[in-house]
Write a structure and sequence with these properties.
The chain is α/β, with parallel strands linked by helices. The protein has helices at residues 3-12, 17-30, 70-74, 118-127, 148-159, 184-199, 217-230, 264-275, 291-300, 310-314, 317-332, 338-341; strands at residues 46-48, 51-53, 57-59, 80-86, 99-102, 107-110, 134-139, 165-169, 207-211, 234-237, 257-260, 282-285, 304-307. The protein has an eight-stranded parallel beta barrel, surrounded by six helices. Strands 5-6-11 form a three-stranded antiparallel sheet, with no helix packed on it. Helix 6 (184-199) packs parallel to helix 7 (217-230).
């Protein structure tokens, strides 16, 4: 980590979490942060759902909700980016404060509630996106919508022409009853509508499904069954958790979704279980804060990984450290390409 970044992180830590987040985006847009682009080698280059990635380490949705830092993020070390979530209409989200650091746990709790500027504003920025990197959009539903399932298709129709993939997010814990859409019948109907919208696009971009880590084994099997039959291209496992076991500090009991290090084992176990239920590629998310953790996700069954909360504690330069470290681990274990390592340690998580 560079000295200037270290100083910046210490300064941000003294601010309200959401204020610090906004300043971090401004700093990136001002030119602070890495500028070399993603680190890549023959071992790290891979293809996921037809998308050619320079490396398998991506930015999870939520960091750049409104697609305001696309150019700056494209100069960082990420192999692919996901922005959003975007809803049909703008919405303010839940009341503040709604983002809390759990520094001792290297974690965060958020209850944003899909705060975003809406698909019109976000779509306009996506239409002017820089070229040269893989960019996806997380699709959301308005809190007061009369047909939340239809909202996902609406956003895809509007923004789909400007992105390389889209993610159906039915796993945020911060919109009441949203996770109910992970039920078998509701999910099948929702994905059917989304895939109809996808079919109407000029370019048939891959559609991903993002699931919760709090599903039971039977619920996970139902999600896999629906996903396998739906025509989607990949599953993102997982979103944040409602668990609060073993947390520390004054914010440990705050309502919302928990992300960061405490989520690593639960989310990795979920993706390992899921990888035995589907042949769809899985993108592993939850608690990735080091090259070793990214590697464990991949060996558990993930074709690629995403991170977000770790940036709060390690800065954007952490991404380059993870990708270079992952390359070293692949060399150490004799893998010619990261795809060869996918699922090689799945049994360790079952």
């Amino acid at each position: 980590m560079k000295l200037l970044e270290t100083i910046g992180l210490k300064a941000f830590a003294k601010l309200d979490s959401e204020t610090a987040h906004g300043l971090a985006l401004r700093a990136l847009n001002t030119g602070f942060g890495p500028r070399g682009g993603p680190y890549t080698t023959d071992r790290l280059r891979t293809s996921v759902a037809g998308l050619d990635l320079p490396n398998p380490v991506g930015l999870a949705a939520g960091f750049d909700k409104n697609a305001t830092a696309l150019a700056a993020l494209g100069r960082t070390g990420f192999g692919f980016l996901e922005v959003g979530a975007a809803t049909p209409r703008p919405q303010p989200g839940n009341p503040t404060p709604r983002l809390f650091r759990l520094t001792e746990d290297r974690a965060a709790i958020n209850r944003f509630g899909f705060n975003n500027e809406g698909m019109d504003a976000i779509g306009a920025r996506l239409a002017k996106r820089p070229t040269g990197h893989i960019l996806g959009l997380n699709l959301g539903a308005n809190k007061d919508s009369s047909d939340r399932a239809a909202d996902f298709a609406t956003v895809l129709t509007h923004c789909g022409p400007h992105v390389d993939f889209a993610t159906v997010n039915v796993s945020s814990p911060n919109t009441e009853k949203l996770r109910d859409l992970q039920g078998k019948a509701a999910l099948a109907a929702l994905l059917s509508g989304v895939m109809e919208a996808r079919a109407a696009l000029t370019t048939q971009i891959p559609v991903f499904l993002k699931i919760a880590p709090d599903l039971t084994g039977d619920e996970l099997a139902e999600v896999a069954e629906v996903a396998n039959a739906s025509g989607i291209s990949a599953i993102i496992a997982t979103n944040t958790t409602l668990d609060r076991i073993g947390l520390h500090g004054p914010h440990a009991a705050e309502k919302g979704g928990l992300s960061g290090q405490p989520l690593f084992e639960k989310s990795t176990r979920t993706l390992a279980l899921l990888s035995g239920m589907t042949d769809l590629p899985i993108i592993g998310v939850g608690g990735v804060g080091s090259a070793e953790q990214a590697y464990q996700k991949i060996r558990a069954g993930a074709s690629a990984v995403q991170l977000y909360t770790a940036l709060v504690y390690g800065g954007v330069s952490l991404v380059d450290e993870i990708t270079r470290g992952l390359d070293d681990l692949l060399v150490r274990d004799g893998f010619a390409n990261v795809a060869d390592a996918v699922g090689s340690g799945r049994a360790d998580w079952l």
